[in-house]
Write a structure and sequence with these properties.
By secondary structure, the chain is mainly α. It contains three helices and no strands.
Length: 76
Amino acid sequence: MLRLFIYWVIKMFKKYKFLFSGLALFSLLFLSSCKEEEQNRILNYNKGVYLGKEDEKLKEDLVNSLSQHVSKQSYN
């Protein structure tokens, strides 16, 4: 019985080798496309709305330093 099944599989593979090869290639591409860094990413976007992680607040002394630096620039 097993020998008959193996013979049938080999016969089908020879007959539909392009189909089986394409199916194997598609399944490899499908399985390899799910990389870990692509998981849990935003797929639905809202126009004008930032949906990413919230930025860290700047320290008060850094804000003051940047304000002083900008005030020294001329806007001519």
